[in-house]
Specification:
Blueprint lengths: L2 H36 L6 E8 L2 E4 L2 E10 L2 E5 L4 E6 L6 E2 L4 E5 L2 H36 L5 H33 L2 E3 L4 E6 L6 E2 L4 E7 L3 E7 L1 H5 L7 E5 L6 E9 L10 E8 L10 E7 L3 E7 L4 E3 L2 E8 L4 E6 L1 E5 L3 E6 L6 E5 L9 E8 L1
Helix pairs in contact: 2-3
Length: about 375
């Protein structure tokens, strides 16, 4: 065998060995990929803090936040239409009875008054003439110088003239009143809380120009959930305090409860009369109202457990056997910054997540760190 043949055989064997090695490597890689595909991904297990639900008889004090408002707010408005030419007060100004708040352009009403006075003068002149004619015919009738029919006609004309004078006088009075209505005069003492149109606008009769909160009695107004409203005693003891200074307090009595819930929040507006309110409780200040509720079975959970599912409040409930969580809708009775009272949706023995709720999803595997009570 020649050297050239030997070299060719060695090269062929080398190429064959290389191809077999590459094929083996490809088979091993494919087998490894198949094994990895067959392995299931490891489920993520999140650590969470939990508590076990217990029912308690809750009749403690509930705290709500509201504002101080006047018991009566009066809309000051003109009795006639016209163009507003002047407004003398702004929001926050104090007004008193007899103070001029605004004025309308009086030109039209002044012209109407002049016309009414001219008509009154003409009617009075006709009345004088009719009265003199009546007196003359009465004297002539005594002397049988005129007929009774002529006298009776003169008497009728006198009555007509007198009626015309009275009618013209009424028109003058009406024109004078309308002229006075161009000046908006306050009839109460209080503070301006709102204002309407600006000078230069044409306003309709009855449109609010200035809103005045009457001085005197004040109310604390709260938006109360239905559950709190339904468990409120008939004559609750209410303590109202300033949010900015809780040491400033006043006693309160429920004066008015709205029969209709707010269509957006579902709460009821409750007005509480402040008894001997300190001067610091000015109109518009923010206050807290504390009230003791009737005892009722309810469930108390931390506010950190609360989340939202759609439009309703919800919590994450743990299935201890499966180690997973699911969202459950609840009904809230009352709440504050740290606690939430639940009336439905939870039962004794349920395990609720109290920390870590933001990172959960339905069916999430969890590891319970602590069972808090």
């Amino acid at each position: 065998m020649s050297v050239k043949s030997t070299v060719q055989r060695v090269g062929h064997l080398h190429r064959t060995t290389t191809v077999l090695a590459l094929a083996a490597l490809a088979a091993l890689a494919l087998l490894s990929a198949c094994k990895r595909g067959d392995e299931a991904p490891v489920a993520e297990i999140r650590p969470v803090r939990v508590m076990t639900i217990e029912t308690r008889s809750i009749g403690d004090t509930v705290t709500l936040t509201g504002t101080v408002q006047a018991q009566t707010e009066i809309n000051q408005s003109f009795r006639i239409d016209g163009r507003l030419i002047e407004r003398n007060v702004e929001i926050g100004d104090r007004v008193k009875p007899g103070q001029v708040l605004a004025r309308l352009d009086p030109l039209n009403e002044e012209s109407s008054l002049q016309s009414a006075r001219a008509q009154l003068s003409a009617a009075q002149a006709q009345g004088v003439e009719a009265r003199n004619n009546h007196a003359r015919l009465r004297d002539l009738l005594k002397e049988d110088a005129v007929s009774r029919a002529s006298f009776e006609q003169a008497e009728a004309l006198l009555k007509v003239a007198q009626s015309q004078v009275e009618s013209a006088q009424s028109l003058v009075t009406l024109a004078q009143n309308r002229l006075s209505y161009t000046r908006l005069v306050s009839d109460v003492s209080g503070i301006v809380t709102a204002r309407g149109p600006e000078p230069g606008e044409v306003v309709q009769a009855g449109r609010m120009i200035i809103q005045v909160a009457r001085e005197g009695a004040r109310d604390a107004v709260f938006d109360v959930p239905a559950q709190v409203k339904n468990t409120t005693p008939s004559n609750p003891e209410i303590t109202v305090s300033l949010v900015s200074d809780p040491n400033i307090t006043a006693k309160g009595q429920v004066r008015e409860v709205s029969p209709r819930a707010d269509p957006v929040t579902g709460t009821f507006s409750v007005r509480v009369r402040l008894l001997n309110a300190p001067a610091a409780m000015r109109l518009g200040t923010t206050v807290n109202g504390r009230m003791k509720l009737d005892s009722a079975p309810a469930i108390d959970i931390p506010a950190s457990a609360l989340t939202r599912s759609g439009k309703s409040a919800s919590v994450w409930v743990v299935d201890p056997k499966a180690g997973t969580v699911s969202a459950r809708a609840i009904e809230v009775r009352a709440y504050d910054a740290s606690r939430v009272q639940v009336t439905s949706g939870l039962a004794p023995g349920d395990v609720v997540v109290t920390a870590g709720v933001q990172a959960l999803r339905p069916g999430q595997k969890v590891r319970m760190l602590e069972a808090a009570q």
